[in-house]
Amino acid sequence: MSRSSIFSFSTLQGFPKPSLPAVLSILFLIIASQLLRQQGNVFDPVPETRREFFNAQPHLNYDAFMPRPKVLIIGSSRLIFMKHKPIMEATNLPINDIQIMAWAGSSFYDAERYLNRYPDLLSQCEYIVLDMIPMKLFTTVAFPEDDSGVLRHMDWDQIPLLSTPEYQLKAYADHVIPFVSGRHRVDDWLRLNSLITSTPQERLELYRTGASKPKIPRIKNVDPEKLQFYIDAVLESQFPDTPLLSIQDDALQRIVKMLPVQSKLILIQPPFREDATKLIQEEDSYSSSNRRFRKYIDQFQSEKVQIVWPEDFGDIEFNEFDFSRDGAHMTAEGLGKVSTFIGQLLAEIKGK
Amino acid sequence: MLFNSWIFIGFFSLVLVMYYMLDTKRQNILLLVSSYIFYSFWDWRFSGLLLLSTIIDFVCAKQMNSSKTPAIRKRWLLVSLFFNLSVLGFFKYANFFVESVQSGFDALGFALDTPTLMIILPVGISFYTFQTMAYTIDVYRGKQEAIEDPIVYGVYVAYFPQLVAGPIERAQRLIPQISRPRKVCQNNIHAASQLILMGYLKKVAIADSIAPHVDTIFSNPTAHSSFTLWLGMYAFALQIYCDFSGYSDIARGISRLLGIELMENFKQPYLSPNITIFWRRWHISLSTWLRDYLYIPLGGNQKGVKRLYLNLMITMLLGGLWHGAGWNFIIWGGLHGAYLAGHRMLNRNSRHIETVRPHDTKTVFGYALGTLATFHLVCFTWIPFRADSFRSLSDYVSTFFNGITTSPALTLTELPSVLLFYGVFILIIDSLCNLKNRELPFQKSTPIWLRTVGYSMALFTLCFVREAGNESFIYFQF
After folding, report:
1. Strand ranges in A193-312 using DSSP code E only, listed in sequence order
2. CA distance linking residue B84 with residue B82, whole number of Å
3. B264 pLDDT band (50/70/90 cuts)?
4. Which of residues 421-460 of B touch A (CB under 8 A)?
5. In this complex, is the C-beta atom of B209 within 8 Å of any C-beta atom belonging to chain A?
6. How far is the C-alpha of B400 from the C-alpha of B328, rounded, in Å?
7. Residue B21, phi then psi, degrees to nearest 5
8. Active-site residue identified among B224, B283, B323, B343
9. In chain A, which among 163-182 make CB contacts under 8 A with chain B?
10. Pick from A241, A330, A231: which is nearest to A287 by CA?
């Protein structure tokens, strides 16, 4: 069939032309989305999780509620019960000089974004302690790349690091018209109660007053079969057999690059319970994940970066009450010991 | 592959571009192949069932056409009906039948250990089975010539825009459109785009935003105040309307882009002044199917008043059962049957029960009152329709009629504002269409500024006022 142009189809009678109202309404949509983007805080929901809390923070004035620490500890749920006191005692630093931040599922990317957003946070910082586990480096349930929290905070130049074109497209689209991540949902606006009390500070206060630290379920009274289930569940997520994520690699490299002259980065992997440690060493998928992870991390070892693996905790004796039932998360007692260790380590480094 | 998924948008864009580049015959092959790909996304194994159903009805119709004696024609019709009803009966009603027998025996004190089959319901089975049955019945009645081209018939059965949730098209309407060359002009594209936009707006922005609230309320009715249960009833009424009519709008819009006109399935049903009109505006393709192939063959209104009431009741009970194998659907159908019979009884001597819309200010008040009453009667029937079990239904109804009071227990604070916002939104759109008696709120003659405001509001709502989830369509389960 010969055609003079690709548009001379027998079914389609002419190339489709959008009507003026259609063009105007799309233009309106683009303008509205950009305006909403400027006023994004109005539409943010009340933070309910630590990640949402993190997302809510860009609207707050950092100076208003946080000092500039000398010791900054950034961790995942594994460091959620870290204590100030042992570190203060070992280093002779006042409490305001020690900042402990931890939120569930936090990755290198989250930490880098946070530091990137508040460069002043590092202005007086001497030690940055960063918790590490393989899940921080690989694709995991805790770190899905298309998570709104990820897309939202991504720089333009980080987008190509996303692993699939679909995620990249989403991230680019989110930069142009920020509705893909669902960050500006007007249905939150419709929730009249939240509209009235919807300043960022008030929302943060709601989070703070409404959130108590989670109770870590302990090992006692747990059926041995269930115990195995808990251990497997957490180790599967923390030692995944998935590819390394460029975005995480890039984030850790950026953290190292942004270290001020006086600062030192300490990458730390707190210990696991004995049975979980055994599994990590003997179970093929966990051990291979751990090996890949260690190999990757070891390349960062330098004068500015110190690495602490579980075996480096040396003389400190951990018992079953120091761990939650999953064998990977620690109780307040266990993290008290880790805090003491970190305090002594920092004092030792300072003494050198 | 849901209409409200990116994969469908990609799939349809590809099909559309290829479609415009082909001649009619190849377009039909493309439609057939793409329809089977579309259907296989749910479960490829059931494509075989769809194919088998297509072949059997195609052969039966051809045999009826070539048969000279009525007896042989009837035999082929029975083959077709037997096959279709058996397939429907097996996949949709076998477990319901077994479980009901078991419950009956249990109630009588006999323990009966009957097997329950693990049967997966093929998506859209009720829709395409009714469509193929309508075809063979029409061929038998001599209203429709048997189709010679298997590709054309294959497209008629499997045409993807309406395959899984209708409209249930008739051969007389669809076959000529599939057989002849199609033309798509600028006006078609504009109207189709508006239909698609309206459909997505109803489904993605409204139905999916309301769904979580409805789920919360219906999952545990006793945890809520009767006020919340009333809101839950209204919310589900809005959800199911936006979900199903949204699907129909998208189906009609994408089909129109392909140059094929599908029938209008909803005509602002909640603005109906009485229940008879409601059933001429709600799920029109099913109600007309039931009328033509069940109600009229039963005798319709030609065999006396008592028989009329009985016929209405039988038709609506079976209409309820069409939705699914469950007593809740039978109750729903029974209520509608009773409403229709009651409406006929009250208006035995009136010739004006079919007033569609008010024509002057004198009739407005009566129309509004009738609409309000009809809306509430319909809303009450949604409670059994949505209830998960008998227990849940009785809990809902007992708490529901416990007096309209607010209670601090589990109050869904955002539901009233969400419901008000979306309810008013739909009311405005439907009122515009209803008053002007047209399918779309905006037409070419509508002032540009008004169209711009309307489209902008629709796009804005679609992009920003919605839940992030991707809910399936309610009617896919039927």
Report:
1. 264-268, 305-308
2. 6
3. very high
4. 421, 442, 448, 451-452, 454-456, 458-460
5. yes
6. 17
7. -90, -5
8. B323
9. 177, 179, 182
10. A241
In degrees and rounded to multiples of 5, residue B267 shows phi and psi of -130, 75
Token pair recorded at residue A201? 């500070």
Domain map (residue ranges) of chain A? 32-351
Pairwise pLDDT comparison (A348 vs A58), residue with the higher score: A348
Q: What is the number of other CB atoms lying within 10 angstroms of the CB of residue B437?
A: 10
Rounded to two decimals, the pTM is: 0.65
Helix (H, G, I), strand (E, B) or coil at A102: strand
pLDDT band at B126 (very low <50, low <70, confident <90, very high): confident
The answer to whether A151 and A236 have CB atoms below 8 angstroms apart is no
Answer whether B417 sits within 8 Å of A191, measured CB to CB: yes
Chain B, 15-54: which have a CB under 8 Å from a chain A CB? 19-21, 23-24, 27
pLDDT over 60 (residue A117): yes
Which of A199, A206, A204 has the alpha carbon at shortest distance from A41? A199
The residue length of chain B stands at 478
Looking at residue B459, its pLDDT comes to: 85
- Record: contact A28-B459, CB cut-off 8 A: yes
Q: In this structure, how many other beta carbons lie within 10 angstroms of the beta carbon of residue A35?
A: 11
The single residue listed with the structure tokens 């115990």 is A227
Instruction: Compute the radius of gyration of chain A from its Cα atoms.
Output: 24
**Packing angle, helices A246-257 and A108-117, rounded to 10:** 40
Omega before residue B167 within 30° of 0, cis:
yes
- How many whole angstroms separate alpha carbon A106 and alpha carbon A279? 24
pLDDT at residue A221, as a whole number: 60
Dist CA B156 CA B168 (whole Å): 11
CB atoms within 10 A of CB B188: 20
Judge contact between B285 and B217, C-beta under 8 A: no
DSSP state of A318: P
Angle at B206 between CA B205 and CA B211, to 5 degrees: 110
Q: How far is CA B149 from its chain centroid?
A: 29
Tens of pLDDT along A255-298?
999 999 889 999 999 999 888 899 999 988 899 999 999 999 99
Q: How far apart are CA A66 and CA B13, in angstroms?
A: 52
Map residue A127 onto helix, strand or coil.
strand
A326: which 2 tokens? 């999953």
- Chain B residues in contact with A25 by the CB 8 A cut-off are 452, 455-456, 458-459
Distance from the A72 Cα atom to the nearest Cα atom in chain B, whole angstroms: 35
Q: CA triplet B352, B354, B355: central angle to 5 degrees?
A: 80
Nearest Cβ partner of A11 from B182, B413, B467? B182
* Residue B206 CB contacts under 8 Å (≥ 6 apart), including other chains: B238, B239, B242, B246, B422, B425, B426
CA distance A147 to A141: 10
A175-195: pLDDT as tens digits: 665 544 444 444 443 333 333
- Asked whether the CA dihedral A116, A120, A123, A126 is positive or negative, the reply is negative
Chain A residue closest in CA terms to B446: A21
Q: Name the residue among A11, A36, A148 with its Cβ closest to that of B183.
A: A11
| pLDDT score at A296 | 92
Candidate from B181, B466, B467 with C-beta closest to A10? B181
Among B120-124, B127-131, B217-221, name the one with the lowest average pLDDT: B120-124
Using alpha carbons, list the distances in angstroms from residue B288 to A147, B255, B281.
47, 21, 10
Q: Do the chains contact at B459 and A14, CB–CB below 8 Å?
A: no
Is B190 noted as a catalytic residue in this protein?
A: no
- Residues 6 or more apart whose Cβ sits within 8 Å of residue A61: none
Interface touch A32/B259, C-beta < 8 Å: no
- Phi, psi at residue A66, to the nearest 5°? -135, 135
